[in-house]
Structures are given as C-alpha cells and as structure tokens.
Amino acid sequence: MKNPIISFSHHLFWDIDKNKLDFEKNKKFIIKRVLDYGLINDWQIIYNHYGISKIAKITTTIRDLDKKSILFIATLSKIPKENFLCYTTKQSTPKHWDF
Prior knowledge:
The protein has six helices and no strands. The protein is an all-alpha fold. It has one domain. The relative contact order is 0.12.
C-alpha cells in the first residue's frame, strides 16, 4: 500500500521533510495543516485514516484554527463550536478588525 503521507499536496509540508512525519505521532500537526491549507484530496486522506470522531477530538484541542475550519468540523461531528478551544480563545481575545 502507498504511504499516505506522500499523497498529500506538496504545499502542505513545504517547510519540513514530509517523509519524517508519522501519522500517529504528528496527528495534531497533520490535521491542523490540512484544515488550514489542504485541498479536498488532503481532507479525504485524513478522513480515511483517522475518521471524523478522532479528527474532531483532536481539533477541539487546537488553539488557532480559522472560523471556517471550526464550523466545518463542528458541523460534520455535530459538536457545538463552543466546545472548541480555538473558538473560546478567539472569543476571549477579539481582534480589532474582524473581516
């Protein structure tokens, strides 16, 4: 079977050697990168590997996801957006301009 790390888009891990990534050790990093910068094929790779419940569980602990990613995972997992650390962190420290 082909290594799924190699199947990711090249732009996701431009700053590191993606051959050194481990799907279990680096799952939080991989999921964050895919949610922030990934394409639909990248999403399908993590969805097939981790499943939505594991992705949602990990995502609730990430401090800095954008609003679209939070709402996407919250909708798919049926977890309220208020349960995500990145949502509550952003609410407690609002930005001056929110476009």
